[in-house]
Amino acid sequence: MHISKWLVSAAAAAMLVIGGGAAFAAEKLKIATEGAAPPFSTVLADGTLAGFDVDIAKALCAQMKIECEIVAQDWDGMIPALQAKKFDAIIASMTITEERKKQVAFTNKYYATPLALAALKDTTLTGTEPSALAGKTLGAQASTTQATYAQDVYAKAGAEVKLYPTHEDAVADLVNGRLDAIITDKFVLVDWVKNGGGKDCCKLVGDVKGTEAQIGIAIRQGEDALRERFNAAIDAIVADGAYKKVQAKYFDFDIY
């Protein structure tokens, strides 16, 4: 009887260890995205989440054969909520940085992007070099790599940097003439000036040289099996064309 119980316990432990996949394969994963950064994530009129990050999450879950629930989470609380186990992973266009690696683990990239600047169409800005922003007011979303870059580079060159809770808040101040420019991921700005609210008012000033960064999925530190399961799924959807199908819905160029 004692041997039987031991065998059951050993088998259960093995299920947790072998690749980590067996343990969570039958469970639901909860994945967080922001919901405030189109075309990567947005909340539709009916309350559902949509966008590139959302569709990539769905494609990865289908590849892993795991049921997933995708939820919205404010950006500032994203990493603390992951650490508090409110969800299992973040797919929210989060740049892989050494500072963030101290708090979370990252998968391999699922796309890469440089930073870029956008401004009103009648702007006098002719470039994105730090000296061009001297005496100008630059907006960015707080707690992001673009906010850090704006403060570390543009502010030191004489720009006034204003930080906002969301990208959409920064956009609103640009449109209303309270900012000279905004800085964020290039692909967000490209979509906004081509297809979104910036089409009539604004233009892309240009890429910020030397800022291309890799975007990954964040999970809790120590959950190596889940990270590798995501890595394998990323490789698989890139190889079988599922990634390109998602990409084509939002971009007419390669972002991987």
Radius of gyration over all CA atoms, rounded: 21 Å
Strand order of the largest sheet: 5-1-6-13-7
* Strand percentage: 25-35%
Report the helical percentage.
Answer: 25-40%
The DSSP helix count reads: 10
Task: Name the shape in a single word.
Answer: globular
**Averaged pLDDT, please?**
90
- Number-wise, the strands total 13
Q: Topology as H/E string?
A: HHEEEEHEHEHEEEHEHEHEEHH
**Residue runs with pLDDT of under 50 for 5 or more positions:** 1-23
What structural class results from the helix and strand content?
A: alpha/beta
Ends distance: 55 Å
Q: What about the largest sheet?
A: 5 strands, mixed
Describe this structure in words.
The chain has 256 residues and is of the alpha/beta class. Helices cover 39% and strands 26% of the residues. It contains ten helices and 13 strands. The protein has a five-stranded mixed sheet. Strands 10-9-11-8-12 form a five-stranded mixed sheet, sandwiched between helices. Helix 3 (52-64) crosses helix 9. The longest helix is centred in the last third of the chain and has 17 residues, at 224-240. The radius of gyration is 21 Å and the shape is globular.
How do the strands and helices of this protein lay out in sequence?
Layout: H1 2-17, H2 21-25, E1 29-33, E2 36-37, E3 41-43, E4 49-50, H3 52-64, E5 68-72, H4 78-83, E6 89-95, H5 98-101, E7 105-113, E8 115-120, E9 137-141, H6 145-154, E10 160-164, H7 167-175, E11 181-185, H8 186-195, E12 202-207, E13 213-219, H9 224-240, H10 242-250
